[in-house]
Hints:
It is built from six helices and two strands. By secondary structure, it is mainly α. Strands 1-2 form a two-stranded antiparallel sheet.
Amino acid sequence: MADDQPAAPGGNHDDPPGQQPTGPLGGPAQPLQSPPTFATAGPPREALAGFWRRLGAAFLDWVLVGIVAAAIGQLFDVKVSSPASAHNGGNFQAAPGPFVLVALVYFTWFHATSAGQSIGNKILGIRVLDADTGRPLPYARAFARALMSNLSALALFLGYLWMLWEPRKRTWHDIVANSLVVSANVYPPGEFGRPVRPPG
């Protein structure tokens, strides 16, 4: 008999024949879609930013931060450590006061923007992204990354050099913030979590 026919999978005995499920506004129900993410294994190693590009971007950023910090120091009569020159040799001590504060604000702001790029990053064509989703970092994690980057420099820059043997080319501050630095040619701003072309 007709009453003994099994219901279609996912169907409802109370639905009139031929009626489809509807969404909250009366239209057809749409399947839920998760935000785009990196591939399960993450971006290919070739898409990760290399040491020299990251070093060049960091150098440009440090120069910009130093100029702003020096200007603030002059304005408020605060002495700021200047970068080492060829005449006085290397100085690997962390700069105090305005330099650290400006660096925290600078890197937190730029790495939490939709582009995930500081000025140095943009010039060298690299981006800082969430390691799991491929999206920009939230402000809290961008701040933690900026703070940890100062600590990465204390042990003779070991935290920065860590990327040379880390499988995903991560520094200590990348590990703390769960971030990756990728090539903007492969993951350009506006393309979150998926490359527009294969690396190479």
